[in-house]
Design goal:
Blueprint (H helix, E strand, L loop, with lengths): L27 E8 L4 H12 L4 E6 L4 E6 L5 H10 L3 E5 L1
């Protein structure tokens, strides 16, 4: 409810968009169902959280509530989930 009143931490209202991270090679992909993303600012926060991991790049579909993570090397699911949850979102499941 706070989100929709502009009181939440995610509603910055800016036009900033997180930059996509390019990987040299993709050896694995994982898709996560993430709850709590409501706006472009939420998308930016999730992308930046995942992109801060070495060898990982995120693509976020806000309407479907999914985050697809491409990886240059195998990564533990928990590492990715922790990065997303630390940004303030709930990883419901891996697809």
């Amino acid at each position: 409810v706070k989100h929709f009143r502009g009181e939440g931490g995610c509603c910055g209202g800016s036009t900033y968009k997180a930059k996509k991270k390019k990987l040299n090679t993709v050896v694995d992909k994982k898709t996560f169902i993430v709850e709590g993303m409501h706006c472009q600012h939420c998308v930016n926060r999730v992308m930046e959280a995942v992109n801060s991991l070495e060898g990982a790049s995120a693509a976020v579909n806000l309407k479907k509530g999914i985050v697809t993570v491409s990886m240059e090397k195998k990564m533990y699911t928990e590492v990715i989930k922790n990065a997303i949850e630390k940004a303030g979102y709930n990883v419901k499941d891996e697809k």
